[in-house]
Amino acid sequence: MKQKLLYLFIVFAIVTGALFQPNQAEAATTKVYWDGILMVPGQVGKIKVVKPINLWKRTDAGLVFERVLKKGEQYRVYRYDNLYGGQYGLGGGMYITKMAGYVEYKTPSKAKLKELANAEGTTAPSGNNSLQLFPTEATPTLTGGKVLSQAVTQLAPGIRKKYFDIDGAIGAQNVFVIEYDGKTTNVGLKTELAKDQLVGLETTSSQANSVEQNDSYHVVAGVNADYFDKQGQPIDLMMMDGSIVSTSQTPASELAVLGVKADGKAIIGAPQVAMNVSVNGQQSYAISSVNRKRLANNLVIYTRDFNATTGTNELGTEVRVKIDSGKLNGSETLVGTVLENVTGVGNAKLNKDEIILSGHNFASEFLQTVQVGDQIAITTKFTPAEWNDVRESVSGRYHLVKNGTLQTIKVAGVAPRTAVGIKKDGSIFTAVIDGRSTDSKGLTLQNTAKLMKDLGATYAMTFDGGGSSTVVTRELGDSKVTVQNKPSDGIERSVSNSLLFISQYKTGALATIMPVSNVLEVFEGESYTDLSVPLKGIDQYMNPVAVSGNGKVTSSILTTTNGKQVVNAKPGMYAGVVTYDGKTANIQLKVSNGAPTILESFNKGILNYEATSDRAKSVSVQSVTNDRDGSKAIKLVYDFTGTTDTSGAYVSAKTKLTISTPAKKIGMWVKGDGKGNWLRSQMVDATGKTVHLDFDKNVNWTDWRFVTAEVPTGLSYPLKMDLPVRYMQTEDANKSNGEIIIDDIQAIYKD
């Protein structure tokens, strides 16, 4: 009996030793402790159980339950991967699944890693490897809540996306941070205007994606920026590409502006600008503003950045100037030649590489002395002088942190927020806090200030918030940016301008592959020929690289028989590997029992669907209760009478139905109308190839029937079904009107 107990103790020690017991490395003379836990080489972080959670052991057959971990227990973490929805590796094959609110994960500081490295006689990990796509970082300590989970993604060298799930004092908060380290070359910040002009609005994602890009210039992230008026014009100072686009309107005591210098360094302040124009090196006159409404006695500069025309009335003089050299900034003089001088007309056309000097009353009298062919020079000087070197700038409203000191902001209200901050080391970061939802409440301005300071800002200010708060990023392997947060309007709001993060690393060779989807659904006992998945390609700078073809999937649950891969596992989640061009990536295989997947039951209504047609007198869709099983269905009503050539009535999906796993057939229940029409569907594969499915070329029945159509092999998944139902007639003599009812559109995986 004693021998048996000893044996069980030894087994337990082997299984749990990596979790709880010191190893040989821990017995070193110099020990390094972090939050009361002894650190060991290879440790990347630690985890604390907040709520009881399962401990799992990974095996070839999948996850095996070990026990339930109790609240308060702490463990070292040696790795993290995306398998099984994301898991922390505790050593000894043991894992905890990443679940918000159940575990608290922290990473050691660089100083602590260096201390451990010194104790072990090795070098500390740099943490800045450009190929490390999901780096680990220390969890920030917040005064207004606790970080329940975080995720970090390297978007480009020197640029990271961070997400924080926070249990805040007033409720849940979802925070999205984009950070540029302020020192990595070939990356930086630029500003962008809606529709390339001051008048008008455009979404942040559209602004970012409209920037002209090539293999050496990439937009990797962006946020909304300045507040704007009803015309869509940003309220205060904006500079683009080294030139003033608009001057400020807000008093200096209330002005907040972010500026980026030529060397990439950022500053936050309340700059004032003085501008003057001289003619032939003699007469000089003060300029009132750039691209603002011309008020009494004003002399205003208008550029093509404003609009198509100046929008002025006839009560003034407008001088057209061709730009010969220089820009409107604090370190250059803009020099130009007068092309024309017009009085009493107004609303002059604005052209590229020209400016219009527009004056009223006294300013008009000054401009009337200017002659065609005269040389004009415009000087610009900022106060403080450091703003003379600024090349990009956007404004906001409230200073949150100044020189490391929290500012007092007596403005009530909890809302979504967008803010920008500068750290002591020169790094620049933006933060978008979602709001007005149960997932994320939003913050007051004062609590936004606290958050920015907690995240390291020595200077910080707000951009426009509320429904405008938006963050976009170019996800790994993608060529365009997409919205990452949940704007409170329910859709992305159009705004006046944006702040973008730019990478100028030239696209290189394929370095990393990623499956388009991290989960591949397969079916128990089913056989597959060359099981594969579509991939995204990434180079060493996180730029997208075109991938030709799919990646081959292998797994311990796939047994090769007669040249086919047979799924030899019960339903569950299993580990797999994707291989392409000598490179590999992890993927999860979800084994299902082979039952069809219902793509659309229509039980939640038909808001996602609309009726479209070709050569039809009328077409419509209705939600109905069917007489087959009493559930909801969709009715397609059409009238082809009196038309010529091929007529079609379609059920069009606003959000396309997705088929992620290779299917053998598509099926649906149809109550026919006996009119002999042609029943089809249309979808596209991952390469954009259009696929037509034929269910029946002669719907001559009037009862309910289950119809199927074969899905062609060799398609790239996922498939997107944009027209689930196409009801057509090719013969003019057979044109009629009628209606059919459709229910339970489904993907079928087994014969």
Automatic annotation (TrEMBL):
One of its GO terms (molecular function) is hydrolase activity, acting on glycosyl bonds. InterPro entries: NAGPA. Keywords: Glycosidase, Hydrolase, Signal. Residues 1-27 form the signal peptide. Residues 361-501 form the Phosphodiester glycosidase domain. Transmembrane segments: none annotated. The keyword Signal applies. This is Phosphodiester glycosidase family protein. It comes from Psychrobacillus soli. The lineage of its organism: Bacteria, Bacillati, Bacillota, Bacilli, Bacillales.
